[in-house]
Structures are given as structure tokens and as C-alpha cells.
Specification:
40% of the residues lie in helices and 23% in strands. The chain has helices at residues 2-22, 47-56; strands at residues 31-36, 61-65, 71-77. The longest helix has 21 residues, at 2-22. Keywords: Signal.
């Protein structure tokens, strides 16, 4: 009886460790639709403002993108 009472907690701990390693990493949602912001005009200097405006337009997020002249680009997750 004494052996099984010491073995049970060790077996439970081993089982929990095995289950925890099987969960794997969580991935971020991928953006699969991109569109220029309709309400944004001119260059994009504030990524937060761009994201807020895009969310107000029904998109999931937005960011300043592009080469020299940055524009606000909205995106929706897949």
C-alpha cells in the first residue's frame, strides 16, 4: 500500500508533463486579405491610428506599408 501511494503522484505528474508537451505552439492568425485604407489620405506616420481606422472600416488590423511613401494598408485574418 505504501508503494502505490508514492507511485500514484509520480505517475500523475509524468502524465501531465507528457500532455503538456503535446500541445505545441500557438500560431497567430494569418492575414489573407489586404486593401488600402479608404478613409486615410496622404502618407502614413502613425501605425496605431492606421490600425484604429482600419478596424472602424471592418478590417481586423492595419499598418503603414510601402517603400519611401508609407500608406495605411488594412488586412483581414483568414
Amino acid at each position: 500500500m505504501a508503494v502505490s501511494s508514492k507511485l500514484f503522484p509520480a505517475a500523475v505528474l509524468l502524465l501531465l508533463l507528457l500532455l503538456a508537451t503535446e500541445m505545441g505552439p500557438v500560431r497567430e492568425a494569418m492575414a489573407c486579405e489586404h486593401a488600402p485604407c479608404k478613409k486615410c489620405t496622404g502618407s502614413c506616420f502613425d501605425p496605431e491610428e492606421c490600425a484604429i481606422t482600419c478596424r472602424n472600416e471592418g478590417y481586423d488590423s492595419g499598418d503603414c506599408t510601402g517603400g519611401g511613401a508609407y500608406r495605411c494598408t488594412c488586412s483581414k485574418n483568414c
